[in-house]
Amino acid sequence: MSSDSEMAIFGEAAPYLRKSEKERIEAQNKPFDAKTSVFVVHAKESFVKGTIQSRESGKVTVKTEKGEVNDQIYSMNPPKYDKIEDMAMMTHLH
């Protein structure tokens, strides 16, 4: 990976292209449960982060950041993969 100083050539767009070194370290140390962390389809924002609350007889109950419950869910990659340049390293591609 390139250093933060190399990203300076991208100016204002740099934060959208790659996390800073500090953000990458924080993401690697952030607690993450691959079995319960999911993305949920949302009408206005496309997808929102959610946490599986229960799984019963084929139904999944999910609590989202927006407080909604929906059963159309997709697995989430660990935070350390946010803005990753090599997508081959990702576990889930949607």
TrEMBL record:
<dbReference type="InterPro" id="IPR004009">
    <property type="entry name" value="SH3_Myosin"/>
</dbReference>
<keyword id="KW-0505">Motor protein</keyword>
<keyword id="KW-0518">Myosin</keyword>
<dbReference type="GO" id="GO:0005524">
    <property type="term" value="F:ATP binding"/>
</dbReference>
<feature type="domain" description="Myosin N-terminal SH3-like">
    <location>
        <begin position="33"/>
        <end position="89"/>
    </location>
</feature>
<dbReference type="GO" id="GO:0016459">
    <property type="term" value="C:myosin complex"/>
</dbReference>
<dbReference type="InterPro" id="IPR008989">
    <property type="entry name" value="Myosin_S1_N"/>
</dbReference>
<keyword id="KW-0009">Actin-binding</keyword>
<dbReference type="Pfam" id="PF02736">
    <property type="entry name" value="Myosin_N"/>
</dbReference>
<keyword id="KW-0067">ATP-binding</keyword>
<keyword id="KW-0175">Coiled coil</keyword>
<dbReference type="GO" id="GO:0051015">
    <property type="term" value="F:actin filament binding"/>
</dbReference>
<dbReference type="GO" id="GO:0003774">
    <property type="term" value="F:cytoskeletal motor activity"/>
</dbReference>
<protein>
    <submittedName>
        <fullName>MYH1B protein</fullName>
    </submittedName>
</protein>
<comment type="similarity">
    <text>Belongs to the TRAFAC class myosin-kinesin ATPase superfamily. Myosin family.</text>
</comment>
<keyword id="KW-0547">Nucleotide-binding</keyword>
